[in-house]
Amino acid sequence: MATDGPVVQVRGEAYREVPPELARFAVTATARDRDREATLTRLAERAAAVRVLLDGSGPTVARRETGDLRVRPETRRSGERVVAWHGSVTTTVTVTDFTALGELMLRLADQDQVEVAGPWWELRPDSPAHREARHAAIGDALLRAREYAEALGARVTALIELADAGPADRPMFARAAFAGGGAGGGAPELELDPQPQTVQAAVQARFTISAPVLD
User: Fold this and answer.
1) 140-157 pLDDT, tens digit each
2) Which of 12, 94, 96, 163 counts the highest number of beta carbons within 10 A?
3) Which residue, 107, 122, 137, sits at the end of a domain?
4) What is the mean predicted confidence (pLDDT) over 16-34?
5) What is the C-alpha separation between 148 and 131, in angstroms, rounded?
6) Residue 73, strand partner residues
7) CA 117 to chain CA centroid, nearest Å
8) How many Cβ atoms sit within 10 Å of the Cβ of residue 46?
9) Closest Cα partner for 204 from 158, 166, 155, 151?
10) Rounded to an integer, what distance in angstroms lies between the CA atom of residue 122 and that of residue 214?
11) Are 118 and 26 a contacting pair, CB within 8 Å?
């Protein structure tokens, strides 16, 4: 694109740390038995117990997704003779109420042959924090252009080009694992500290400036 007069090119950046909006964790129910049908029956019962607890959590659970169902035979090293069957099913749970998160995770971990891992802290894909960071990056680019122009005794006159140049945001996470054993009794209290999320944005911008004063 042809332009009249001098041009300044700058990079604008913004970096923010904001509280997370979502927490995800995984609940895995397992079963093992020499008999395949017994393994499947136990696995179904334990998965159902997990569902009952999640059903009773009310609005604490915003979303849950069941996947990663595995059933596999255990064989002897020398041959294909099956000595046991292993089964597992994992449910990913999304929570927005962090005050009840620790209690819910420990209640799930207190179930027989259930493992809980997480949480992973995130922002919503449409979080206002992303928009605010992009706006701040544009403001930073304009400020830098004006500073360069001022140093030359000039002023910014027009925007020629603006392009996004920021890296993708990376969710922060903390991982903990709890293996349930059905010990009975009330689950202990667990307080979790939500990890701040890093939001970054960067732009490349080109501006025309008035004639510099170089005297």
Assistant:
1) 999 999 999 999 999 999
2) 12
3) 122
4) 95
5) 26
6) 85
7) 14
8) 23
9) 166
10) 50
11) yes
